[in-house]
Amino acid sequence: MSAIKMRSIQRGRLLERITQQRAVIAHELAPVVGLLNAADQVVEGADKTRRWIGENPLVAGAALIALLIWRPKGAVKLVKNGAVGWRAFRLIRRLLA
Fold first, then answer.
1. 49-76 pLDDT, tens per residue?
2. Mutual orientation of helices 57-70 and 30-55 as an angle, nearest 10°?
3. Phi/psi of residue 22, each to 5°?
4. Separation between Cα atoms, residue 81 and residue 90, nearest integer Å
5. How far is residue 76 from each of residues 12, 60, 68, 94, measured CA to CA in Å?
6. How is the chain split into domains, by residue range?
């Protein structure tokens, strides 16, 4: 058998093995896909919210002032939770970078 035919057969076997490995990886990582899609939606929602607040600062400020007047304790709790969420978000971004 010529060297070219042997290389061709070897290449075919490797391609078949690669295809099988890809199928196994796709099957094993199926649960992760859902989590990554959810994370993408959260990031997209946060980005949309940030853009909306940037485009409508007066509305956002008025809503914040109304919240402070109407529910001061709730506003303080919201700020605390927001700060914790922001720190967690920054930590995750730093770790993933």
1. 999 999 999 999 898 889 889 888 888 8
2. 100
3. -65, -40
4. 14
5. 65, 16, 8, 27
6. 57-97
